[in-house]
Amino acid sequence: MKIALFGKNLNGNNHEYVQLLIDKIESLGISLIIYEPFFNSYIKTFNFNNTVQTFSNHLEIKDNVDFLLSLGGDGTLLDTITLVRDSGVPILGINMGRLGFLASINKDNILPALNAILEGNYALDKRSLVRLETPSNPFGELNYALNEMTVYKQLPLSMLRVKVYVNNEFLNTYWSDGLIIATPTGSTAYSLSCGGPIITPESENFIITPISTHNLTVRPIVIPDNNIIKIEVETRNEEFLVSLDSRSASIREAQELIVKKETFKINLVRLNNQDFFSTIRHKLLWGSDARN
Prior knowledge:
Blueprint: E1 2-7, H1 15-27, E2 31-35, H2 36-42, E3 53-55, E4 67-72, H3 74-84, E5 91-95, E6 105-106, H4 110-118, E7 122-127, E8 130-133, E9 144-145, E10 148-152, E11 160-166, E12 169-176, E13 178-182, H5 190-193, E14 205-211, E15 221-224, E16 229-234, E17 239-244, E18 247-252, E19 256-261, E20 266-271, H6 276-283
Parallel strand pairs: 1-2, 1-4, 2-3, 4-5, 5-6
Antiparallel strand pairs: 7-20, 8-9, 8-19, 10-13, 10-17, 11-12, 11-16, 13-14, 14-15, 16-19, 17-18
């Protein structure tokens, strides 16, 4: 078995948990491969008994890794999909950040989570992705996102005029700061903060959520994810921003954006003692009432 570790920046309080994980993996004789920038940043922080193998791109883990462990928050886990791509490598998120919907394993449970994986006490949640197609293709091969595709304004005091078509049928023109096309996974992210609904991961839907709309009668709408969404944007300075999860690019308004479901899915590891409803109850403090 080979396990990959991916991370970015760690709070000093989290170093001991990562060391515990490294020690456990090495003691079991499991091969370990670490994301090269992460390894170089912490080479003097962690102790290794064996020679460390590193990786820096998706080709080095595509057919070479059984699991990828993401050390950080949800943002860190979102970055792993640019490395995993369509390989199907299962991702386990270990939460060393704050809320952690995707990185759902608490750092205090690192070793029990590793044991659960080794014992086969887990399931794979297959999460759908949203894909963006546009003539300039600013994201190259990484034109997909796990949470959402978002268009938003560049100028702070202006707004966008966003025309949206679903399967070539006109839906609406949104006068707003921007627009979110979210997957079910992304329903608990940016879309939720803009008033969008929570959707269970297997729902096979897209959520279209306006950002700070200037028409109070406009509300988020849920559509099947086999629909194709076309977006046309008008703005004062002829450019607007587009983001795919945490990656963003500037696009000229003359371009048409096509949004559809990606052809592959991402595998997130879910331990057998976890489920989606318990996660949202815990993270959103549902039922935190003395009567419950």
